[in-house]
Write a structure and sequence with these properties.
This protein is of the alpha/beta class and 287 residues long. It contains nine helices and eleven strands. Belongs to the LysR transcriptional regulatory family.
Length: 287
């Protein structure tokens, strides 16, 4: 039986996450030649193609390549889970882990869900940092970071993997009067997928803006709850708000989704604690 190289499987998983050899090279902190060489070795060991070039030389995985990449990602998750388990057995899940994410995830999802994690690890201290700005892991501004897009920087010092998807729905105030207009985002946020969707929706015939422009999803959520207007909000946080209800209708344009990526240092001084928090995050978003 052919024994596959673990690092080459990680390279294949990186290609699946990033969608290209260049993207995989950025995630792994190596050059594209190294990625191509490792993929060639893996395909030689497999005895068949794992990647193919489509129209426009677009790279995609074959059925076997996809299955191997998915299994490699599971192996990565299991490796971190095993590290966390060993830490638990030796009482090493201790110390402080600093985790940063956008405010709506920190305040509406992570903070309310942190109780069981801290109860399971009494010596663990979790610092939650709500920040729209991307804090730097390489400068040790945080130990872990959640990003809502595929990271493009970090090099060999940062590991990144996709752990879930942030889905959106349209929400309005559950009871009482509310405006039919759309709560939009300020100009600085106009490049984001959900902001673009809202702007296009408000320009459609028969639709209108509510007159309020916000800077983040948490402010939009409060505006919707007060009846100022409608907006799209992350399902994972809005479904737990009893003040809101989803507007179930067929929209002219598909609602956006955003990838959730977990970033961590390649070399962690507190691996057991980092592993425990990482497993908690993966479980939270997979649920």
């Amino acid at each position: 039986m052919q024994i596959l190289d673990w690092y080459e499987l990680q390279v294949l998983a990186a290609v699946r996450r990033s969608g290209s050899i260049a993207g995989a090279a950025r995630l792994l902190g190596v050059d594209q030649t190294t990625v191509s060489r490792r993929l060639a070795r893996l395909q030689e060991a497999a005895g068949m193609d794992l990647l193919v070039r489509g129209p426009g030389r677009r790279l995609s995985l074959t059925a076997l390549g996809e299955e191997l990449a998915v299994r490699a990602q599971r192996m990565e998750a299991e490796s971190e889970a095993a590290a966390a388990l060993l830490g638990e057995r030796h009482g090493a899940v201790a110390g402080t882990v600093r985790l940063t994410a956008v405010p709506v995830l920190v305040n509406r999802l992570l903070a309310p869900a942190a109780g069981p994690l801290l109860a399971a690890h009494p010596d663990l201290a979790l610092e939650l940092v709500p920040e729209n700005r991307d804090l730097s892991l390489t400068r040790r501004e945080a130990d872990l970071a959640l990003r809502l897009a595929r990271p493009v920087t970090g090099g060999s010092e940062v590991k990144a993997r996709r752990i879930g998807t942030l889905s959106y729905k349209v929400y309005e105030r559950r009871s009482g009067t509310h405006s039919e207009g759309w709560v939009l985002y300020e100009e600085a946020m106009a490049h984001l997928p959900h902001a673009r969707w809202l702007a296009r929706q408000a320009r459609r015939p028969g639709e209108a803006a509510a007159g309020l422009h916000v800077g983040d999803a948490e402010t939009a959520q409060e505006a919707v709850a007060s009846g100022t207007g409608r907006s799209i909000l992350p399902v994972q946080v809005a479904e737990g708000d009893a003040r809101l209800r989803a507007v179930e209708r067929a929209w002219e344009e598909a609602l956006p989704e955003r990838e959730i990526w977990l970033l961590s240092h390649a070399r962690q001084p507190n691996a057991a604690a980092i592993g425990a928090v990482s497993v908690w995050l993966e479980t939270l978003f997979s649920a």
